Amino acid sequence: xxHLTLSTFMKYVLFxxxxxxxxxxxxxxxxxxxxxxxxxxxxxLITYVIYSITYKAVFLAIxx
Length: 64
Known about the structure:
Blueprint: H1 6-31, H2 37-63
Helix pairs in contact: 1-2
């Protein structure tokens, strides 16, 4: 791990935490019978698409 800077390491840690949080929260919604699996999967997909579009729009605008 000597080739990773602290900033890069923290990005991986935070990304891992975010993934675990999404999985745990989605499972909880299904387990509590608040949503079906398809609802949770589609919600994650929509969130990812919105994030991707926003990320590309913001960082392409910053680079120019």
